[in-house]
Description:
Elements: E1 3-7, H1 11-21, E2 26-30, H2 33-42, E3 47-50, H3 59-68, E4 75-79, H4 84-93, E5 97-100, H5 105-122, E6 127-129, E7 132-135, E8 140-143, E9 146-148, H6 152-163, H7 171-179, H8 187-200, E10 207-212, E11 216-221
Parallel strand pairs: 1-2, 1-3, 3-4, 4-5
Antiparallel strand pairs: 6-7, 7-8, 8-9, 10-11
Helix pairs in contact: 6-7, 6-8, 7-8
Amino acid sequence: xxxxxxxxxxxxxxLLTSAKLRGQFTILCAxxxxxxxxxxxxxxxxxxxxxxMMPRMDGYTLVKTLREEGNSxxxxxxxxxxxxxxxxxxxxxxxxxxxxxxxNYEELTWRINALLRRAxxxxxxxxxxxxxxxxxxxxxxxxxxxxIELPPKEFDLVYLLLSYPGQIFTRNQLLDRVWGYDSQxxxxxxxxxxxxxxxxxxxxxxxxxxxxxxLGYKAEITGEGRP
Length: 227
């Protein structure tokens, strides 16, 4: 079931929209853009439905902030603002769709499902191992909806290893692929990053990073990570 984040400062509208969509989707709520970013730091979200006029951070600013961070999550603005200029500002900020109030909830559901289908097609580069998802565009690792923070090089390492489960990579190969051929880093850099990576991912049971003595490293998928 897809997880939607409803960003709406008007309580009655927030409760009504949540009630109409719940059962088809998992609904998270935020009262403004600032709270929305806080929710997204803790939870995996598949799509955002946002009002425009909100305190602290409005809908336009929320979308611009996400896009500047490289986050391509689908965003649908749901607002009473109906002018051509309002729609132009919305799309120029980086939204994916725009609906005006009063809301036809059947149409809203159609639009949500269409956006989710397009997002799924665009996200085929993600690696899914059991309940763990690695997203190379957003540089995020999530497990059961909870985000695990990884520095960029550690993400690149685990993404490369999980792209070829069971394949052994030497330290030099990992240096070349992750740090680049002209890097001044040495094999100890790889060893250090692997050690830190294991520590950050120690609670995940779907896969492990294995040291192959005298050769290098590989990722092994466990029974919990197999489809």
